[in-house]
């Protein structure tokens, strides 16, 4: 099983020209699944790995508190690996076609408290030279309207 991983890494290096760190990440991700299949299911052939085994591995990763982003990266590595194996006719199907990647939660935007903004405007003052006055107006416009920087520009 692992001999095909070596040829896949050579393919990534020589044909795709991926960076050494990317190749190491791919190799580690794929090795994790292959070891899992070997230990948990006693599978020694790549063609025997199916979607159920991959789903089981994903559940194991989630239980070990891996983030959705990390799991998605691992799945991407595996998709590439199995597509490579399919092109080389080592496997007849890609077991990851039926796998739905976990959703990545959206981050909430950071915000500034009103007290902090009021304090900022109080420190600037009123009687200013032109560049300072212009900068204050830009900050006030951005803060009061919520427009984006690109819209202001």
Rg over C-alpha atoms, rounded to the nearest angstrom? 26 Å
Q: Calculate the mean pLDDT score and round it.
A: 91
Structural class: mainly alpha
Give helix % range.
55-70%
What's the number of extended β-strand segments? Answer: 0
**Could you state the order of secondary-structure elements as H and E?**
HHHHHHH
Tell me the distance between the termini.
56 Å
Question: Major sheet, described briefly?
Answer: none
Shape: elongated
Oligomeric grouping of the chains? single chain
Beta-strand percentage range: under 5%
Number of helices: 7
* Unreliable residue stretches: none
What does this 3D model show about the protein?
The chain has 153 residues and is mainly α. The chain contains 7 helices and no strands. It has helices at residues 2-14, 20-41, 51-63, 68-87, 114-124, 130-145, 149-152. Helix 1 packs antiparallel against helix 2 (20-41) and helix 2 (20-41) crosses helix 4. The longest helix has 22 residues, at 20-41. It starts with a helix and ends with a helix.
Please supply descriptive tags for the structure shown above.
mainly alpha; 153 residues; elongated; single chain; 7 helices; 65% helix
